């Protein structure tokens, strides 16, 4: 596929730039007394080393993001035959069509979403250190409210690298954040929505984790929602990805809006929490973990609330979505329209090629 080739070329390009010599990792001063000139020389060397290490980190994380796209295809399972007749009319056709479309593009949630983010910024942390992964997942979820994935990702990167610079090997950990004041936390996350409030919430949550849960994430939704700023959506996603406990559906604004639009829940569903309860009445548990990232990516790219892209959505072209924009469906994709679509939050070239074939 074209996207895979572009990713491989990008990896080669990044790798070819990594030509600087491996930086010195430790500088040990063995003498108790040094003159001012020597101390200045050592400090200059340390500054140079830090700059080299920063460049290596940037290269490493660019490669991780690219490799995620190559070795982790964006594949979700289809609805089982036995479940097709359960629930609202045509729900399984809609679900399966979204699965087909989501194979053809990587949405922000796929690499920068809360559950994927820790492994993106700290490769393989979920396998290497599950406890730290759970903490990083919790922080990413707490920052995500009223914040785009891309902005949340940048804040998490700042936190992670900032903690590494302070001497914490795994970067963003409970021990590292616990040592910061609320004001210091805020300097790292000041681009996310309601950052002042979230700094207070994070500090308080760290205190609660240490005092009540032995420094680890609890295993029940009742305990998790005790943390300030953490609601059921965050809690269920935390349990699913941190503990592999599938006790509820994580419903965000995208799933809440789309479920109403497709008739999966009543039109008068007042909140994501109400939508969660309605979905759990009929949706088999097998799909509880996948439905959030599947529909969030679709909502971010194909069907955002402000300007839907029905002309590249198979739900619209097949008549599965009653809310589709009929005007967009009257004309073939022009070069001008394609150029506009390519400025969206994902590379849609493969999806457009698939729909035109």
Query: Count of DSSP E strands?
Result: 0
Task: List unreliable stretches of 5+ residues.
Answer: 1-34, 64-72
* CATH H-level superfamily of the largest domain: Hypothetical protein, domain 2
Q: Rounded to an integer, what's the Rg over CA atoms?
A: 23 Å
End-to-end Cα distance: 14 Å
Determine and state the CATH class of the largest domain.
Answer: Mainly Alpha
Secondary-structure element series: HHHHHHHHHHHHHHHHHHH
Tell the overall outline: globular
Number of domains: 2
Indicate the percent of residues in helices: 55-70%
Q: Indicate the mean pLDDT.
A: 85
What CATH calls the topology of the largest domain is Endonuclease III, domain 1
Which key terms come to mind for this protein?
357 residues; Endonuclease III, domain 1; 57% helix; globular
């Amino acid at each position: 596929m074209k996207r895979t080739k572009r990713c491989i070329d990008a990896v080669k390009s990044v790798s070819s730039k990594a030509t600087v010599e491996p930086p010195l990792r430790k500088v040990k001063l063995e003498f108790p007394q040094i003159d001012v000139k020597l101390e200045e020389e050592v400090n200059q060397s340390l500054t140079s080393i830090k700059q080299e290490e920063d460049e290596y980190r940037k290269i490493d994380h660019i490669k991780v993001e690219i490799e995620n796209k190559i070795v982790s295809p964006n594949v979700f399972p289809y609805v089982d035959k036995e479940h097709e007749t359960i629930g609202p009319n045509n729900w399984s056709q809609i679900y399966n069509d979204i699965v087909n479309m989501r194979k053809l593009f990587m949405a922000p949630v796929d690499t920068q979403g809360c559950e994927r983010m820790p492994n993106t910024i700290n490769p393989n942390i979920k396998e290497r250190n599950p406890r730290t992964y759970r903490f990083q997942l919790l922080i990413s979820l707490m920052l995500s409210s009223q914040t785009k994935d891309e902005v949340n990702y940048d804040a998490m990167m700042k936190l992670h690298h900032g903690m590494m610079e302070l001497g914490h090997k795994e970067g963003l950990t409970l021990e590292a954040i616990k040592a910061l004041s609320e004001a210091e936390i805020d300097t790292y996350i000041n681009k996310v929505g309601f950052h002042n409030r979230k700094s207070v919430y994070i500090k308080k949550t760290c205190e609660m984790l240490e005092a009540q849960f032995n420094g680890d994430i609890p295993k029940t939704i009742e305990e998790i929602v005790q943390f300030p700023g953490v609601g059921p959506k965050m809690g269920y996603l935390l349990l699913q990805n941190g503990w592999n406990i599938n006790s509820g559906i994580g419903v965000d604004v995208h799933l809440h809006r789309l479920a109403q639009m497709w008739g999966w829940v009543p039109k008068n569903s007042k909140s994501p929490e109400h939508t969660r309860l309605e979905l759990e009445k009929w949706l088999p548990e097998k799909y509880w973990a996948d439905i959030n990232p599947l529909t969030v990516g679709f909502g971010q790219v194909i069907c955002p609330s402000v300007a839907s892209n029905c002309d590249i959505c198979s739900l619209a072209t097949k008549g599965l979505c009653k809310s589709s924009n009929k005007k967009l469906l009257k004309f073939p994709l022009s070069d001008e329209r394609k150029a506009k679509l390519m400025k969206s939050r994902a590379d849609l070239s493969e999806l457009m090629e698939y729909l035109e074939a």
